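Risk register update: the risk of archive-format incompatibility is retired. Evidence:
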Amino acid sequence: MMSNTSPAVAARAAGLTEADLSGLEESGVYANRPNFNTLARAIGLHPGNLQTIANGWLPSKKDLNRWRELRVFTTAGNGITVNCYLAWDGVTRDAALFDTGFDVSPVLETIAANHLELSHVFITHSHSDHIAGLGTIRASLPAAKVHSSSKNAPLEQRNITGECVQLGQLRITHRATPGHAEDGVTYIVSNWPDHAPQVAIVGDTIFAGSMGGGNNAWELARSKVREEILTLPAETLICAGHGPLTTVAEEKANNPFFG
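Archived output:
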């Protein structure tokens, strides 16, 4: 539990058995409606926002035509789905891939169909579902430079503080967002055509209405989201590793972890 509240105490607060609470955490499904207000207070979440999520809130559907050269790929493996993202400059055709997901076939097809040059691969964190296709990408497009904040990455691949990567007109910077993963990093893609809002590719740092597991670093994870992501302009498009696209404004208004 995020607040170090025991499962037994949280279950009592919700009016559930521990087994029912565990099932709710896994699936989001419940037979008997929990008391979300007392549960939220027990585990340190915003009661109103938790109730909003329980009532089925989802962020508004995003029209990616605003970001003409941005694509989302969702692939499945090991019982889960994961998102990766491809962005490119419409003039130079220089492209960057953010994570790989399980299957990079649709990414490679898009690169070929749009006559792109994959110049960069940016890794948000090194959990297996986010880098499963990295070997295939490197074998297929060996000229692409890999960027990572993993301490196990070769020095020439590690993100450098203050670095700005130019992708034609687009600018890519990064912010350290550890917590869910020691090497967690958020990439900011800005200077889109027609003044489209900037894009934050966040890995598993924050999701629509939720956040990635803190893995014994909950407070670090939450503080990094507050400091490095929720301080971005309200219209910033948040591209998470799992689930739908959202915005800074929607998460500030609805996410129970940050209310």
